[in-house]
Specification:
8 helices, Phosphoribosyl-aminoimidazole Synthetase, Chain A, domain 2, 2 domains, homodimer, globular, alpha+beta, seven-stranded mixed beta sheet
Chain lengths: 317, 317
């Protein structure tokens, strides 16, 4: 097993930075503020329509750098493999991880593998740390202003529902793909705007949770327009059947941006010009006139979106 | 559980770099080559005489930076908690992790926590990435020369045996402490020497495995003097009883150094002047006259130390 892992990881992830014989390796980083983020991945099932835990780890980690206005350059990878995991599946997942990293010009600079006893592992867990450089202006929840526009780069909830369907717990089937992907093209296009305040990828807890974070940090209300929020039909159908709210479901390839209202249309056009942002929409605004996160319905009513009490879908990331 | 974790981690690990609301945080790093390392921790039991999985994660990760000639500055922490883990134990471990990091002036800059379903976790797994700056000269296996001296900073095998005894599988008891600790004072003292070629902490696979890595990288033989290698009596006794070789047992607070023979005594005196290096010893040399890792016994015989085929003690780190 150990030899296989060494060969597998060395072959799939090789790059000039990775030295499997070194205790620590140097990183070449120039030209801006160094940014760090880290994430654990425990998704079940390990492979799902549109991705797997390997590609998800790369996208999830580099997306956290991207929405902070940084370009990702390096990953450190920890792998926890349960004894008895099928080798062919491990190979598919690590190949996918390597491919996703190469597509982003991100190098796996350091790695470690531990084997967990059978029955103590859930197959495979990954933990990835991402290092990048911030090139654009500083972004932050604290920069949000009354009247700022809120945009989302595409339909919400695809990842949450795709993973849930792949679990086959509810006897439902569908051909919905996870949205898991890099958001770097979207964030690169956005950081060029002087009026950009803040970006976040709405993962666990979804769009509504990002809005609550915005509300808590700014003290401003967040008013969303229900009819403006893009939700795919199959996502809405499953939500209707099972009583979920798509606004609380995880995305793994979307960006929520807060921007000066004077630049909202520019950002919307830029995003719509990218394949990753074809479904982008202006969905609401920050406002001092309400003190909650609210949803204006198609009929003109307004209801408060409460905070998520408990995650409806465990092990989605 | 989520609130508890947020409170616990925020309280125990708080520092100016850690922003639990940010996707990625900036790192301030000046003055040298940036070094990265990463490590997973799955030790059982989670607490053992002389340490626990929390302090071990800090020491294990920062030690990999230290032996590469770097000063550690930041950690990124991933925590995988099995549902049902005793909260008081988690609190002890994270407190110990925070304390160990503060003692080294190392900041936990990024973190993530995932909860694993009961029966899929082994209690607690940690994954830590360390970032540091190399201040001394470049070190490497490739710098080793024929005639170089090999030193170890203290007795070997304490960690491996202490963890094994804590597992109580063999019905043995003892008051042996793990050697798990920071080696930074030792490596700081060593990097000042112009003749220092290479350092490594002999963790999994022990001293003998470091010697095999030296042999494979340099093509030179490694000749160790058995009587010179420090081994504590209780470690030797347990090894004698159970048929282990202390040279293959893990240490978590020792350094093996390869140095110009003209500076071997200087390094030895420096190490012996430190509390961490009181038991340091000159244990052998690199030589072109043999083509293996060999052990010269007390009676003057010489035997080949084979490579470790399989780790005798699972889950020690």
């Amino acid at each position: 097993m150990r030899e296989l892992i060494d060969n597998l990881f060395a072959r799939q992830l090789s790059n000039p930075s990775l030295d499997t014989r070194a205790d620590a390796v140097p990183l070449t980083l120039d030209g801006g503020e160094i940014m760090i983020t880290t994430d654990g991945f425990t998704v079940q099932p390990l492979e799902f329509p549109g991705g797997n835990i390997g590609s998800l780890a790369v996208h999830g980690t580099t997306n956290d750098l991207a929405v902070a206005g940084a370009i990702p350059y390096y990953l450190a990878l920890n792998v926890f493999i349960e004894e008895g995991m099928e080798v062919a599946q491990l190979e598919r997942i690590i190949a996918s991880l390597g491919e996703s990293a190469r597509a982003l010009n991100v190098r796996v600079a350091a790695g470690d593998t531990k084997v967990l006893r059978r029955g103590e592992g859930g197959g495979l867990y990954l933990a990835t740390t991402g290092i990048g450089i911030r090139h654009g202006p500083r972004l932050g929840l604290d920069l949000a202003r009354d009247g700022d526009a809120v945009l989302v780069s595409g339909p919400v909830g695809d990842h949450g529902i795709a993973v849930m369907l792949a679990r086959e717990e509810f006897g439902l089937q569908g051909n919905l793909l996870s949205d898991a992907a890099s958001v770097l093209p979207l964030t690169r296009a956005a950081v060029e705007l002087s009026g950009l305040r803040f970006m976040r990828d709405p993962t666990r807890g979804g769009l509504a949770t990002v809005c609550h974070e915005l509300h808590q940090a700014s003290g401003l209300g967040v008013q969303l327009q229900q009819t403006a929020i893009p939700v795919r039909d199959p996502v809405q159908s499953v939500c209707d059947m099972l009583g979920y709210d798509p606004l609380f479901l995880a995305c793994e390839g979307r960006v929520v941006a807060v921007v000066d209202p004077a630049q909202a249309d520019i950002l919307l056009q830029r995003w719509r010009g990218l394949p990753e942002g074809a479904g982008a929409a202006l969905i609401g605004c920050l406002t001092g006139s309400v003190r909650h996160v609210t949803l204006v319905t198609g009929l003109g009513g307004e209801r408060i979106l409460d905070e998520l009490e408990d995650d409806p879908l465990p092990r989605i990331c």
